[in-house]
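Q: What residues go here?
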């Protein structure tokens, strides 16, 4: 395990660990009830109470094989008492112990008795057994080591803790680094995740002792990666590289300062360059250079950035030599941290941007200059060719069509301008963008110059569009008015029914439709979804609304019926009243649908509807007094309709008065919702 450098364990923490070790020894050798056990518990309780206070509610111990990490400081692995304590806890496969404020003697006593039992004498070590055993005390928590989360596996001879030696070495190093997060309150269940560890290191800044321990682990891991190979080394490399790459630059720079120890910093960079990923190596070199007051020239860093871009690119024929070149240059230049960047700041930024640009692969024709600049120069000189067409295609592929069209519009008039515009705004280009699901603004930028030429590509895309996409596509051809409508009508008869429904939706959203199109022709279609869309269009037109309501109410499809009931509730035509009454009495319909029919009938506001509603609500007289029927969804809807539409009619007022005084809450609520009365408390 790595040794914490100058960090020294505080006296109170050292006394606490020694008291804990003594308590475990006594519980291991003395029988239950022995007076010395009570003394051990009392001594540990006093130490814990002195360390836990309002500003420090938790005390966490990270566990390695031969040492402990407490408050970010690692204990001396050669201290006999603390080494024995670490080994005892480690044999139980424990990764950490946490004491919280409020810890009492009643919890410490069974805790010591449980942990004091040697792991070899129980059925399984505590960390591999029942999780409830580890969490049985509110203020003393044990956390398992959880090696299975590390995925560091490679066969080898067993070590002294039962793990293969190669696994134990790498796993112990990573676990030790992960447990350092516990000093900042991290959860053991997630401490082995590099993302969680990086976030914890970012959040805990300014703690010198804590960072010295982390640096010590990083140095040991880098050294391990330099010496080891195989799957275990690859797994450790992936984890530590992810950790380094996800750290904030200021955090990594703070760690790379290493207390001003240049020798240790250079050693760490050397080992990292040999064993970590190229991305992590580049981040470490940048942070180390910054920690050294920019001792490495920015030009060299830009060169290394270009090497890394090639080395990270899958399928790049230069990947292997660039990876090797990056590591070789880092190792050769570790000692050269003294030269400042001679370039002006603006020039340096320009060079840095060029270094981060996409790599240029041999044998592949790409542009060393920006495609926008190529198009602008071609328009300026009035000359186009294959290079310009490739630049136009590249900009369109990147979704920069709007920018490209703006460049063309600003260009001087001429045949080159028209040729480039024709290359951009073509039916094939629009079809390609539609298939890619381009943004509406990009589609509009291409479709608008096309005019009627955009209709066929858009209608082809409509065949595969959902309702949300239909609105976007219709907006592209809506300005074309009747031309778009005629094109849709030409496709309707021969299209499959899913496409027919989408085409009907598109027709319904156009600002104008040809006189040859009548939604009523499609309102009797065998497919319910097509009928429903045609009826929606009938309902939106005041001229055909009454026909739409009656057709929907007579439809056997439940969705279409509900559509008609919703329209009738807003404004029920008197001609639909008989159909609504019949639907309300139809026992085959669900009660909630019959209730909708009752509400819709009330919306007609006719005398016939009033008499019918009163008849549905009044029951047999009792003691010569009128009563209400037993409550049902339909009767409650009838009273609601009377309160909303007929509250001022003499025939309805007795019924509403009975409903307000009724013991049935459904009736009282129906009146209160529609007439403004407050339901009386009962």
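A:
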């Amino acid at each position: 395990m790595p040794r914490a450098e100058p960090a020294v364990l505080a006296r109170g923490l050292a006394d606490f660990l020694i008291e804990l070790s003594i308590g475990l020894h006594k519980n291991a050798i003395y029988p239950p009830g022995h007076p010395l056990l009570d003394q051990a518990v009392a001594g540990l309780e006093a130490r814990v109470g002195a360390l836990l206070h309002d500003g420090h509610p938790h005390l966490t111990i990270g566990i390695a094989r031969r040492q402990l990490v407490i408050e970010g400081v690692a204990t001396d692995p050669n201290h006999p008492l603390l080494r024995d304590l670490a080994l005892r806890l480690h044999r139980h496969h424990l990764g950490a112990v946490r004491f919280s404020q409020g810890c009492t003697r009643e919890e410490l006593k069974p805790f010591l008795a449980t942990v004091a039992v040697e792991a070899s004498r129980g059925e399984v070590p505590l960390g591999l057994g029942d999780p409830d055993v580890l969490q049985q005390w509110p203020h003393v928590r044990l956390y398992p080591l959880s090696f299975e989360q590390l995925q560091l596996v490679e066969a080898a001879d067993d070590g002294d803790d039962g793990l293969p030696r190669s696994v134990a070495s790498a796993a112990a190093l990573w676990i030790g680094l992960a447990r350092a997060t516990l000093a900042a309150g991290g959860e053991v269940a997630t401490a082995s995740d590099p993302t969680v560890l990086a976030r914890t290191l970012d959040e805990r800044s300014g703690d010198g002792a804590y960072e010295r321990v982390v640096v010590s682990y990083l140095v040991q891991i880098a050294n391990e990666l330099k010496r080891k190979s195989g799957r275990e080394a690859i797994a450790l490399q992936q984890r530590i590289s992810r950790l380094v790459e996800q750290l904030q630059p200021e955090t990594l720079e703070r760690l790379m300062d290493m207390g001003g120890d240049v020798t240790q910093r250079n050693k760490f960079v050397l080992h990292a360059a040999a064993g970590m990923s190229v991305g992590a190596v580049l981040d470490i070199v940048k942070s180390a250079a910054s920690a050294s007051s920019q001792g490495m020239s920015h030009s060299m860093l830009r060169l290394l950035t270009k090497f890394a871009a090639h080395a990270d690119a899958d399928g790049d024929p230069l990947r292997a030599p660039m990876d090797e070149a990056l590591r070789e240059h880092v190792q050769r230049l570790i000692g050269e941290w003294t030269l400042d960047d001679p370039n002006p700041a603006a020039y340096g930024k320009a060079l840095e941007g060029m270094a981060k640009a996409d790599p240029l692969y041999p044998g592949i024709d790409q542009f060393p200059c920006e495609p926008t600049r190529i198009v602008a120069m071609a328009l300026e000189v009035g000359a186009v060719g294959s290079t310009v067409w490739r630049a136009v295609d590249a900009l369109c592929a990147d979704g920069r069509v709007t920018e490209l069209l703006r460049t063309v519009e600003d260009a001087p008039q001429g045949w080159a301008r028209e040729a480039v515009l024709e290359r951009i705004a073509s039916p094939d280009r629009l079809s390609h963008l539609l298939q890619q699901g381009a943004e509406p603004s990009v589609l509009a930028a291409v479709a608008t110059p096309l005019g009627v030429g955009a209709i066929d590509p858009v209608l082809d895309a409509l065949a595969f569009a959902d309702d949300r996409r239909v609105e976007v596509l219709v907006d592209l051809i809506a300005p074309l008015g009747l031309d778009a409508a005629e094109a849709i009508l030409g496709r309707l008869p021969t299209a499959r029914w899913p496409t027919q429904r989408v085409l009907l939706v598109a027709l319904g959203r156009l600002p104008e439709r040809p006189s040859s199109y009548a939604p009523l022709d499609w309102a009797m279609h065998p497919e319910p979804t097509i009928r429903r869309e045609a009826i929606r269009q009938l309902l939106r037109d005041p001229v055909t609304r009454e026909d739409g309501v009656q057709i929907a109410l007579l439809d056997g499809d439940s969705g279409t019926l509900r559509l008609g009931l919703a329209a009738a509730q807003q404004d029920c035509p008197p001609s639909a009243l008989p159909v609504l009454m019949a639907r309300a009495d139809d026992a085959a319909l669900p009660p909630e649908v019959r209730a909708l029919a009752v509400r819709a009938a009330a919306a007609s506001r006719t005398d016939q509807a009033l008499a019918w509603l009163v008849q549905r609500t009044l029951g047999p007289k009792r003691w010569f007094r009128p009563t209400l029927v037993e409550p049902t969804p339909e009767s409650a809807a009838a009273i609601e309709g009377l309160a909303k539409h007929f509250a001022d009619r003499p025939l309805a007022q007795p019924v509403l008065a009975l409903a307000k005084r009724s013991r049935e809450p459904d009736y009282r609520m129906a009146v209160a919702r529609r007439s403004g009365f407050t339901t009386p408390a009962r």
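A: Context that may help when evaluating the design: Strands lie at 58-63, 68-70, 73-74, 94-100, 140-144, 618-622, 625-628. The mean pLDDT is 76.
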